[in-house]
Amino acid sequence: MNTEETNSFQAVDEGFTMIEAIAEAKKCLQCKVPQCRKGCPIENDIPDFIHALSMGNMGDAMRIINEKSNLPAICGRVCPHEKQCQGHCVMNKKGTPIQIGKIEQFIADFDTAMNLTREKLPQKDRGKIAVIGSGPAGLTVAGDLARQGFNVTIFEGQDEPGGVLMYGIPEYRLPKKVVRAEIQKIEALGVNFECNVLVGENSVNVDSLFHQGYDAIFMGTGTSVPQNMDSTPGAKLRGVSQSTYFLHNVNSYNEGAIGRDMVPLRDGEKVGVIGGGNVAMDAARTAIRLGADVTVLYRRTQEEMPAIKAEYEQAVSEGVKFKWNTSVTEFIAGENRRLAACRLSTPEGELVERFDRVFLAIGSRPANRIVSTTEGIEVDEKGYVKVVERPYGMTTRRGVFAGGDVVHRPQTVVLAMKAAKDVAQGMAQYVDAIKLLEAAKKVEEQHITDK
Ligand SMILES: Cc1cc2nc3c(=O)[nH]c(=O)nc-3n(C[C@H](O)[C@H](O)[C@H](O)COP(=O)(O)OP(=O)(O)OC[C@H]3O[C@@H](n4cnc5c(N)ncnc54)[C@H](O)[C@@H]3O)c2cc1C
Q1: Is residue 153 part of a domain?
Q2: What is the rounded distance in angstroms from the CA atom of residue 243 to the CA atom of residue 66?
Q3: Total number of domains constituting the chain
Q4: Do residues 34 and 75 both lie within one domain?
């Protein structure tokens, strides 16, 4: 990576200093009925950890956070705070809400730097759990169940854990050293990680995991199959590719794992990004960092765009252009079946615009690798796994649970965590119940033998 590129991928927001964090914490009104907590999907005890911070009690602040969250350094950076905790802060009335995300980030980073956390961990004798996938959902189930005395192993298809946190969200928003530090904390709870194991391929599948003695299995496998535009003429041209593939490659390039030539973008290219969500913003802002001239093409209005507002504003300030109510109706070929231009339907009518490259960011859905190799896991017409309320989060296959994006469609990190926390409870109840029944059966068998 050249020096210019290195700088451009450095974290956009370096976070609070200690003095800034404590000063911000002291501004909190400690409301009797804290609205911020209501705005947090995992009901983090925000006023309590802010109070601890305001007195300089860093260990306490982290302990309070750990009661609800396994990934605070990540949530502090990538949650849509303006819609959640911070958006609910009563001080919004004065236009100065407490910067809760940055406070959470500060506490978690301080904990990592100083290695403060000292948790008393129970014996891992309550049951054996397999977690498939190590994104926010899998990491949350693993962390919660390890803390409750379960022996947990995560199976991850990639060569490093983290899911979208590691391979999707770019370095400048979520430094990989932060993701690795959070994962190390989960490992320190006694969770085992087996990477490069794609469950459903070769010899490892749901049945083989049960044969290995796992009492319950959690699927947190996300949505790895991106939507394509195959019905649009020219969609298979060279130069039309997926944003997630591009982001994955750039993350690997930033890590030094691959060369610049493996990143599908040359300096100075004119790039279109199709979509209006966070993935589109990440692709656009990443492409601009690599020297491209970038336009986002979104089929709806600015107001309807699902991306986090701050992401959109950053993209604009970095030079990304936007065309609203604009759809690509044809990818036009130049030499060697390479993309040369796009035919656009715009509010001003149809026009043809030159593009060297287009990245698609129009959604994704689950892969069927596990359900196609396992009997009894029902999915809906789009491939999302169906789950039941009791035991909470169990699929139609007994003992197999699921949560996160593979159930609820592409959402956010904290919503995947929220779903996973609830499923972890369902799994704990299920395993306790089967263990109890096993014990009862043994008593009965012993009684019969004794007679
Ligand atoms: C580019 C991008 C940017 C985003 N930005 C934000 C943001 O700023 N804020 C926010 O809150 N959300 C954001 N999101 C959404 C958020 O990242 C997801 O909602 C969240 O990661 C879902 O978590 P998950 O654990 O369900 O799945 P994932 O994070 O997708 O993790 C699934 C894991 O399962 C593994 N896996 C899949 N199949 C198998 C198998 N058969 N065997 C073994 N392992 C398997 C995968 O390799 C992966 O590691 C973004 C998403 C993307 C793609």
Answers
A1: yes
A2: 33
A3: 3
A4: yes
Nearest 5°: phi and psi at 294? Answer: -115, 135
332 shares a domain with 259: yes
The atom number, within ligand 1, closest to the CA of 168 reads 1
pLDDT in tens, 124-143: 999 999 999 999 999 999 99
What atom of ligand 1 comes closest to residue 414's alpha carbon? 11
Residues 357 and 233 in one domain: yes
CA distance 226 to 244: 8
**What residues line ligand 1, using a CB cutoff of 6 Å?**
78-79, 132-138, 155-158, 163-164, 168-169, 198-200, 220-222, 224, 244, 247, 278-279, 282, 367, 369-370, 404-406, 410-414, 416
Residue 370, domain member (yes or no) = yes
Q: What is the pLDDT of residues 274-318, one digit of tens each?
A: 999 999 999 999 999 999 999 999 999 999 999 988 899 999 999
**Atom 37 in ligand 1: residue holding the nearest Cα:** 221
Q: What is the CATH number of the domain that holds 272?
A: 3.50.50.60
Ligand 1 atom nearest to CA at 406: 26
Last residue of one domain, picked from the residues 64, 84, 114 = 114
Q: What is the pTM of this model?
A: 0.95
Domain holding 92, by residue range, is: 12-114
Residue nearest to atom 31 of ligand 1 (CA): 135
Question: What is the per-residue pLDDT for 6?
Answer: 47
